Structure formats: C-alpha cells, structure tokens
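Technical annex B. To support the medicinal chemistry partners, we prepared a structural model of the target in complex with magnesium ion, based solely on the information shown next.
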Amino acid sequence: MTSLQTPPPDTGTAEHAWWRHGVIYQVYIRSFADSDGDGIGDLGGIRSRLSYLRDLGVDAVWITPFYPSPMADGGYDVADYRDIEPVFGTLGDAEALVREAHELGLHVLIDIVPNHSSDQHEWFQAALRAAPGSPERERYIFRPGRGPAGALPPNDWESVFGGPAWQRVADGDWYLHLFAPQQPDFNWENAEVVEDFHRTLRFWLDRGVDGFRIDVANSLKKDRALPDLGDFDQDLLEAHSGPHHPIWDRDAVHEVYRGWRLVLEEYDGERAFVAEAWVRDAERLALYVRPDELHTAFNFDYLRAAWDAEELRATIDSCLATTGAVGAPTTWVLSNHDVTRHATRYARLDSTAGGVGEGERAGPDTPLDLELGLRRARAAALLTLALPGSAYLYQGEELGLPEVLDLPEDVLQDPIWARSGHRERGRDGCRVPLPWSTDGPSLGFGTGKAWLPQPADWGSRSVAAQQDDPGSTLELYRAALAVRRGTPAFGEGPMSWIDSPAGTLAFERQPPEGAGSRVVCLVNLSDRPVPLPAYDVVLLASGPLDHPGTLPPDTTVWLR
Ligand code: NOJ
Ligand code: MG
C-alpha cells in the first residue's frame, strides 16, 4: 500500500454504504475543465473544480478514462492501464485528485475498459510482431479469414461503430474489434488477461480509488466458436441478448466479475463497481449485481423511456423489482457521454420518437421545442432524485445543456462519423466543453480554444450566469441535492405509488422509524394542470407553482 492512501469519506454502516443511495457526477475529462490552455480538459481542471462539485452536493465523481491513449475513441482505447495520458496530467496529479476529493468528502470512481485495449498497447504491438498462433496473439482474438486465400472476415459480426468487426493484418490473419479497428478485443479465455486486470484493479485501489465503472461489461466472453450472428440482433444498444447470443451478455461473463469482487474485497472501506451493460432484460441485468458480483449496474431502461407516465412507471417498477430481488440498489441515469442529452430528447415534439443511440440522434431538421425540453428535463431531475437508489448526473445537465446538433462537420471526432461513411454524426454533440463563465475564449473552460466549439449562446448557460439565480437549473440541482441529503425519507427506504390523475406519477417515500416526515413526489407528464394532494410544505418544485393548489404540466413537486 502506498503512502498516498487517504481515508475515504465516512460512509456509515455497510447497509448505508454511499453507493447504495449516493449521487454520482460523471466527469467526461476532455470536456470538463482545462488547466493548461491546450483546449483539452485534464486532471488539473478537475482538481480546480472539486469544490464546485462539493458545493453542488454530489457524493462522488466518476471520471472517464484518463489513461495513455491515442484517442481513437476519446480515451476508451487504452494503451497502458496503469499510467496517465500526458495530455491529462501525471500519476501524481491523479493521486492528488483522489486525496483532495476525499478531503472534500467526495468518493472517486474511475473507468476501466476490459473488453478491448488500444492497438498501441504493448501487448497488441507484440501480437502484431509475433506469428499467427503464437502466445502473443492468444491475448487477443485472431483468426484466419474465410473464402479463397482467407480474404473474407472470419464471421459476419459488425462493429458497433459501423463496418465489419474484423481487421486484417499483414500476414493475412484477422483480429476482432467490436468497436473501432484501433480497439482490438481481448481474449478473456486467456489467463494472462485475467491476471493483468486484477493487477490493474489493485494498482488503482492502492491509490485510494473508491471503485470502478466497467466499460461494456457484458461483452467480454464471446462464444469461443465465433459463429455467425445470423438471426441474432447486432445492435449493442437494442439487442435482446442473453445466454445464447454469441457476443452480448453470455453467462460466462459472470466468472470475470466474481473474480473482480474478490480483489475488491481485499480492500477496506466501501468500494464499489458499477457495470455499463446494455442488457435489455431487467432479469438478465440483475444477474450482474448478485451479492458475490458487482454492486450496481446502470439501469438504461429508465434512460430509454419516453416522457410518458405509464412507460416510466412500468420501467421504475421493473427495475426496482429485479434488482431488489438480489438485494442490490437500483441506479437512475438520464444522460451520459454516449447518448443525446435528455434536455434535447425531451424536446422532440413526439417524445417517443427516436431512441438514444448514435444512429437515432435528432438531426438539425428534427422539430424540437427546447423550452419544453428543458422544462421536462428539470421535472425529470426531481423525479430521478426522489427515487430510491443511486443516481448518476452527467456533467452539464445541472446547467440544463442541450445536445449540440450543429457542430461543423470538420470538427467531428467521434469514430462513428467516419465509420458510418459520414451518415451518423456520432456523440460529439453531448461532449462539448462546459461553459463556466459568461465570456472568454472558451467560456472559462480554459484559456485557449476548446477542442470542440461551444455554441455562441452558451455564456448565458454558464455556471457564472446561473449561480445565485434562484430560477436557474443549476440552483434547482443544488437545492434538490441539499433537500435529498437532508431528508431521511429520501434514503434507501422503499417507495409506494399513490393514486393520482391520469398522466401523472405520484409516490411516497417513508423515512426510517422516527426520522422525520414522509415525502410525496408528484410529476405531471400530462398537458393540463392537476390538483396537488394535501401537504404541509412544498419542499421543492421544478418550475413555478403560479396557481395555488395545482401543478402545471411538465413539472415535478416534492411535498412534505
Ligand atoms: C462505452 C463507452 O461509454 C463509449 O464511450 C465507448 O465508445 C465504448 N464503450 C467502447 O469502449
Ligand atoms: Mg488541458
């Protein structure tokens, strides 16, 4: 153990572990804050804004990959799992960040990317130098091709980013890459791969991190025979996967996480895993959070649900039931660095139109009502923060930022843009650097030009512009997080639905015995005002309550 270990923040008893009910703020490092003027966010930038996160009132930060990387996929192409990308800083900066976060009472989750490395990883470089069939190639998934002279890919799998999932190397062998060609998939049947990831987990746990977000956690164990997909769905985001799917969510993947759990248990404190697993069936997702595996998994059904009372209610029920059955808490998330920001999703005139994924982003021509989107986003935030379980916020949602739909084509960096033959613009629109101040070269993001241009009107959406304005989205989030923290009923306990008019959601949260009053959350997703139930105090509302006793459309209220 190194001297860098700092005690993590006090977490109370195991049953009340922070990760069961905490609010975790996702930092997309390239776009959060830039400390050295190169236009790219970095560790120094995060350190300089830790007090902002503490004042916002979150419990933890999750930082997207900060490892050495050629950035073929924004850092999800890792060249060395146990070091820091120089553009982002040094190992010393990362250690200081963990220490300073802990001093402020913030936990730190880091991203781990086990499905694939960068093609610049020393193991992949060694594999390229070695011969077909060599132990070096066994750490990845190399195969001969099909057809005359092996000129055709070994099977029909497609890359999530478009095009075939196979790339041919100079000696004629092919290797698998479920994502970009610069992201070769590891062979998780290989013991060296398993051991090396244990070593990486310990490396960062020794440096005091409180846990890991696991990238594409459901893809590690492919069917060893690598059969054609045939009738199976290719689409990562939409596939109904399960034990028979050759790629996604096979039963064997759980072995990996049982091993990871044992590594984590070597360490003290409340440390936790959260799985990114796009698994469509709630029962299958719950398998990842069994007591000897991961602690939590993102619940993407909630993020995918339309702004519709019935659909949301059914989703909430199924998520609570399935994770509850294995004793795990549920996670709630509305946005992240891969999907259209929810202020824009909810601005679609038909809120059920279009999905969240790369291929379904609203283009510049889709009719949008951004004022409506923001109103709903604010209402959705109060719904999310009233539900039992942990909640994830994506940087900038506290400012009400919309997706940037009109980035010039020549600045687009997401590999999806090139791999789709310029048909899909990809995910850059939710990755535009944050506006911190009302003016300056990159609106306070840094001192230089930001790596993606910010819209001209983002100064008015900046932290400085919203700070202390009681009607702003930033102040709504601050108030919500303060009320959540100070209200025992919002803790881990259960929720129960209460009767409410059509098109609304209403539920009650009960405090633990003798710890304060019950709270009611009422969300109006209909297009007309609805009466408020009897209450003592309005704790918070997502918009003005101009007509006493009624809740306007697209508004949420918390009542005591
Ligand atoms: C999921 C990450 O969130 C995404 O940004 C990345 O492109 C893929 N996994 C591949 O690592
Ligand atoms: Mg920088």
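Notes passed to the chemistry partners:
The radius of gyration is 23 Å.
Confidence is low (pLDDT under 50) at residues 1-5, 10-15.
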